Amino acid sequence: MRRDSIFYKIFQQFPTILFEMLETSPDNAAQYRFDSVAVKEPSFTIDGVFLPPDNRTGIVYFCEVQFQRDELLYERLFGESFLYFYRNRDRFSDWQAVVIYPSRSKEQSHFHPYEDLIEGHRVHRVYLNELGAIGQLPTGLAVMVLSTLSQKKAPEAAKQILERSKQKTTTQEEFRAIIGIVTTVIAYKFSKLSRQEVEKMLGITGLQETRFYQEAKQEGRQEGRIEERQSLILDQLTGSLGELPGSIQEKITALSSDRLKSLGLALLKFNQLADLEEWLKAHPE
What we know:
5-stranded mixed β-sheet, alpha/beta, 5 strands, 49% helix, single chain, 285 residues
């Protein structure tokens, strides 16, 4: 997920945001701390772990942010989470998992072996486009939703978040942190704009191009190139094979940059839709 660094910053700045997405939360939610952990043997990296206070046993919350369809997401999530829970069983009384999607269309298609877990009370699926109007959401959730908006809608929503935060934040330091996150999201979406152009778009001045800001711009450029390649390949395939089924288009847009390059070379040899389907079957992500 190319927005990992942005969401990591959001969780750092607003650690209680996880519980704002859930119907129920622990009494000591405000004392939880956010971390990202690596689980060795085998090597796994969990997007985010929300840890209860060190002085008491509590529930550990695993968090996964998924903006691209991954047909093995739940296999990985449960494999990582259970291994981590096993290795730290003496620290926690229970576990829960939160999976954040931009929309339902990005969710794993088939999860029959884990259906009881996913439909149970320990797993929570959040769809950002269903949380409601961005102007009515807490700041942290609003910034999350901002990352899902189109270029057309994002600037006005960003200005709305900044104006509301300016009125509600209690310290300048807190407000500057929010400015940093919001402008980074915008820099990610408009990676070709200069710092001055981003400032003008949002109506702010004195924006600093931090390393995190620059990394977001670079990631935005990379994703933009991938999206352009996806569009070109889909156009070529449609021109030679006819209109592609939605399921096939989703598989193509989920391919990595290297896989897209390989497909761009292979598609010249496809004579019918079955050839494309066979190639996708032989080159899973």
